[in-house]
Amino acid sequence: MKFTAAIRIMPLKEILDPQGKVVTNSMKNLGLQEIQHVRVGKHITLEIEAHNKMIAQEKVNQACHIFRKTKSAKKYPSNLKKILQNHYEKRGPNKPL
To answer: CATH topology for 2-91?
Structure first.
């Protein structure tokens, strides 16, 4: 079975987020003073081939563990779902998710 995992990588709230600060200041400069405390992160989508959801989740956990080792002070919630076979066939194996 094929699964997709969406991993959201965000800096911890206790850690300064310079990109978020720049975006917050830009919003103020654009007349959007109501927008405050912007945090900038990353969104990663993985496709996993596994026999079941438990095995796929373990692979995602391993990937997140590697991300934690290489990028300090981040948190990595993930969302895992099964790809519908007909959706995969329609989009083809070489097209992005």
So the answer is: Mth169; Chain: A , (3.30.1280)
